[in-house]
Known about the structure:
The structure holds 2 protein chains of 2 kinds. Chain A has 6 helices and no strands. Helix content of chain A is 64%, strand content 0%. The N and C termini of chain A lie far apart (79 Å). Chain A has helices at 2-24, 33-50, 61-79, 85-95, 100-109, 116-138. By secondary structure, chain A is an all-alpha fold. Chain A has one domain. Chain A is globular and about 50 Å long. By secondary structure, chain B is mostly helical. Helices cover 93% and strands 0% of the residues of chain B. Classes of the chains: A mainly alpha, B mainly alpha. Chains A and B meet through helix 1, helix 4, helix 5 and helix 6 of A and helix 1 and helix 2 of B.
Amino acid sequence: xxxxxxxxxxxxxxxxxxxxxxxxxxxxxxxxxxxxxxxxxxxxxxxxxxxxxxxxxxxxxxxxxxxxxxxxxxxxxxxxxxxxxxxxxxxxxxxxxxxxxxxxxxxxxxxxxxxxxxxxxxxxxxxxxxxxxxxxxxxxxxxxxxxxxxxxxxxxxxxxxx
Amino acid sequence: xxxxxxxxxxxxxxxxxxxxxxxxxxxxxxxxxxxxxxxxxxxxxxxxxxxxxxxxxxxxxxxxxxxxxxxxxxxxxxxxxxxxxxxxxxxxxxxxxxxxxxxxxxx
Lengths: 162, 107
């Protein structure tokens, strides 16, 4: 009888511990290979469009609008999961005035051409912004060894390539 | 001391050990990362200032780069938070495994 009571006590404590652990920690969502591939693709498309930003904006307006719409879809998708808050916030930064969103707006609004040095610096900076986002995806539980990211925090300080 | 007390103490000791190690690893890495980020940011700001002085970029472009660096700091913080969240999840898994394996020993 005493043994049964002790066993019951152990399991009550164990269940209580598990419930508390579940409440205390909102675990990140599992690795999503589609979101990862999408982020990598959007980084590639963004850098390719920045490479064209020496041209007149009007010649690439459609491409910019399509890319910004892709950002919106990715941000919306990330925002659907409560525990995916960090990724949703990273998308807010990238779409915002201080990252890719702001760069394309600057390209549209500038009266003169953006300088080659600025384009090169901004390309390297926005690439790092995407690298943080991609590393956030890779940090999720269940990412396979084949999924990699270039963590900017691990890279030595170096000027961008021209 | 009852068997339940023994069980409770064994799990608590295990949690403490697992938590301490994970916390230690995380804090060590966070320190390395923040030093690395600071070094990168300083090198960037120094280079942009030189480029501004040389007339390679204008004031608006300089400001855009500085604002982009602030965005980068936000993203770095989000990445650290995301990794910490993952570490916390791993820690929870360790606690659960430990509690279950210990429970079977005591029943």
